[in-house]
Amino acid sequence: MLSGRVPGPLSEYLQRDHALIDRLLDEAVRDPDRFDHGAFERARARLLRHIGIEEKILLPDAKRRAGGEPLAVARRLRRDHGAIASLLVPTPDHALVRELRSILREHDPLEEGPDGVYAACERLAGSDVHELLRRAEAAPEVPLAKHFDGPRATRSAADALARSAESLEHAERRRERGPGDD
Hints:
By secondary structure, this protein is mostly helical. 66% of the residues lie in helices and 0% in strands. It has helices at residues 9-29, 37-65, 74-87, 94-111, 117-125, 129-137, 157-177. Helix 2 packs across helix 5 and helix 3 packs antiparallel against helix 4 (94-111). The N and C termini lie far apart (46 Å).
């Protein structure tokens, strides 16, 4: 059993990824007169891969190990992930990074620390934690689409969170109705 105080290997791996994403976002906006698109694209790629690890590996694994019951914070994480992903669509600039960071500032603490999602996943995995880490490390890069600045592009955290919550509610209603009930 992992200690509640010492981060386990999965927590350490994913928290290092948070730190790398933060450094890349810092690099993107370091110069107030110039935006570093290369640094942002590296942060964007890391963020999308990181979200994929959580959505496709950690949350389903935790739900399975908890007898089909999702983690209490899973819905909030999915809402945040949707909002973060939507802010990665438009052409980035300093203002967009500020919006993205406003979500990450509240989101990352839900995942880190002894009461965070990563520690919960480690506790549920028990002796299988190294296999879970191996799966996370092996997660593929996410192909990046071109940026899109059309009328539905989201550029504020508030709009991104609202749209993501709306999308989750719609998906839940569809699941409750079941196949063929549309």
